[in-house]
Q: What sequence folds into this?
């Protein structure tokens, strides 16, 4: 073969090798490992990315990474690195996306020159430098003791630290989906997100799985009982939402991202669904029962007020005394926080407080105005509540609310009492408070306060019960919301049917302020 | 036949019972009303079924998460 013949072929041999290496990457951990993984009802990482992003939009980065196998200096195969990632788009908007490949050594960490995923991985740098959302599809147990063998030494914790993961939380939307078993680093990584989700039956999350728990505490516990959604989502609130399937999980991720801007230097996208801002719902006139002991459906109230079908509830099964959802009002993204009278009369317990704290921070970070729909009798009372630190978590929520700089709108539906009530207002801003005619407020509900404040007078009356009822009636008459409106202590009493129009008008008016307050939010002070 | 457990979402007491064992009930039915934080809290079925047992009586205390009724689908 003359030198000219070689030139005629150009770099074809290398391009052939490239095709072979790419095929090896696409084969993941091999047919047997892939079949075993799929038999457990799980998709492979490549199927997951394809299921999540716009068709054909995935631009992989690092497809050739892995461990080459050579015979006599000739390449015979490549075991790919157990992480697949790159650039893609979701509903036409750029994202960085990546996830562990469980079919290669169970998705345990891999030591190349540069980390691909997880904390400190390239996929995080991609999101940081291009200021685009990050989606982590987590399916791995993190470090393995076998790495000591490979390296010849034990790695100090934090060589691949969480510093970039933390930085991202102030810059771009971060979504973590737990798709399989996540323990150790990947489990920790899942928490460092703006929103997290896991899949029913096939995903579990814990600091350490059943074998470690049994060795440490002699507790025998199943994977599902230790880290299934019953614990991680409903009880602990470690992960925010549950999907019924991997396909539904991808739908939920796309939906969550549809409410968020690409980064904190932008405003969330406006989507007009053709729902008129002045739509009137007759049902709102009667939704709150006149009998104060009777509860009503706050979720339904939110559905009637928000743009039709636009609500996406965050943490629906945790802290059920409070409802938090992203939604739209006349096309603009807002965060609704509504007390739920069907659970503890809407009293703020420790879980509701944590949920409110997180949701306020989420909205504030991405310049999403907050609408409080208030029906809160106060912080939860009782021994359990005190032991659970309700007071501290409740005040933390008040503190975070006072640090928020997004416009906050308050609509008092019924009860607005005490510190929890105060935490539902915009003390740093306009402090616009609209109230329904069913509204009532004060430092504590009248029925609880009368017996204590007028004890001597009631006890010395000929008919104590009648006297107590009489005092209650007198005070209640003066507690009419109209009297507070006379004093401009609330800015407006509205017909409940006017709620949507009022809110849309004020949210529109707040846009100039939102547009001039972009960028990262400074944090200072010590949270209680 | 799947068994469904109905759990109390709140700590409080049973105020009124509104269903009998053996009844076939649709999703959305209120089977009892609890009292908590001075409010009437209806227990509404998320799924329908035959009410196989009530585990509480009127006036009894309940704790959050307690199984208060069982249904079979």
A:
């Amino acid at each position: 073969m003359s030198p000219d013949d070689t030139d005629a072929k150009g770099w074809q041999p290398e391009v052939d090798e490239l095709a072979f290496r790419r095929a090896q990457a696409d084969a993941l951990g091999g047919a047997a490992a892939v079949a075993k993984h799929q038999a457990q009802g799980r998709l492979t990482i490549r199927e997951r990315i394809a299921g999540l992003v716009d068709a054909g939009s995935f631009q992989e980065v690092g497809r050739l990474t892995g461990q080459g196998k050579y015979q006599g200096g000739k390449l015979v195969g490549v075991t790919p690195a157990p992480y697949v990632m790159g650039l893609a788009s979701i509903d036409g908007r750029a994202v960085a996306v990546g996830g562990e490949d469980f079919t290669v050594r169970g998705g345990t960490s891999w030591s190349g020159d540069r980390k691909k995923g997880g904390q400190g991985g390239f996929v995080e740098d991609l999101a940081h430098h291009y200021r685009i959302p990050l989606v982590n599809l987590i399916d791995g147990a993190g470090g393995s003791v076998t790495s000591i063998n490979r390296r010849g030494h034990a790695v100090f914790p934090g060589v691949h630290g969480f510093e970039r993961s933390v930085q991202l939380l102030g810059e771009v939307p971060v979504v973590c989906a737990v798709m399989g078993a996540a323990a150790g680093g990947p489990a920790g990584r899942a928490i460092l997100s703006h929103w997290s989700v896991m899949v029913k039956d096939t995903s579990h999350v814990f600091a350490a799985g059943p074998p470690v728990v049994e060795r440490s505490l002699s507790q025998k516990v199943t994977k599902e009982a230790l880290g299934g959604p019953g614990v991680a989502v409903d009880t602990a609130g470690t992960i925010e939402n549950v999907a019924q399937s991997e396909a539904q999980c991808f739908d939920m991720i796309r939906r969550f991202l549809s409410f968020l801007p690409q980064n904190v230097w932008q405003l969330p996208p406006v989507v007009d669904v053709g729902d008129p801002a002045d739509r009137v719902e007759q049902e709102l006139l009667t939704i709150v029962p006149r009998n104060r002991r009777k509860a009503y459906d706050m979720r339904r109230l939110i559905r009637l007020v928000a743009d039709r079908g636009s609500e996406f509830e965050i943490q629906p099964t945790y802290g059920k005394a409070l409802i938090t959802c992203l939604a739209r009002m006349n096309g603009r993204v807002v965060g609704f926080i509504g007390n739920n009278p069907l659970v503890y009369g809407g009293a703020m317990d420790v879980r509701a407080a944590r949920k409110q704290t997180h949701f306020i921070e989420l909205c504030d970070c991405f310049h999403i105005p907050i609408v409080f729909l208030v029906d809160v009798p106060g912080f939860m009372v009782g021994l359990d509540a005190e032991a659970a630190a309700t007071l501290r978590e409740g005040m933390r929520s008040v503190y975070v609310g006072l640090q928020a700089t997004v416009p906050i709108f308050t609509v008092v539906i019924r009860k607005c009492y005490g510190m929890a009530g105060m935490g539902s207002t915009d003390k740093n801003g306009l402090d616009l408070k609209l109230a329904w005619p069913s509204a009532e407020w004060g430092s504590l509900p009248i029925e609880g306060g009368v017996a204590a404040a007028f004890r001597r007078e009631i006890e010395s009356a000929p008919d104590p019960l009648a006297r107590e009822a009489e005092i209650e009636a007198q005070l209640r008459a003066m507690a009419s919301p109209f009297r507070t409106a006379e004093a401009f202590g609330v800015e407006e009493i509205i017909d409940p049917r006017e709620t949507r129009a009022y809110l849309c008008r004020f949210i529109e008016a707040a846009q100039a302020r939102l547009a001039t307050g972009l960028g990262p939010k400074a944090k200072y002070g010590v949270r209680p | 036949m799947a068994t469904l457990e109905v759990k109390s979402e709140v700590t409080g007491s049973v105020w009124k019972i509104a269903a009998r064992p053996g009844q076939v009930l649709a999703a959305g039915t209120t089977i009892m009303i609890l009292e908590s934080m001075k409010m009437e809290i209806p227990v509404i079925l998320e799924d329908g079924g035959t009410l196989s047992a009530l585990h509480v009586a009127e006036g009894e205390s309940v704790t959050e998460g307690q199984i208060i009724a069982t249904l079979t689908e």
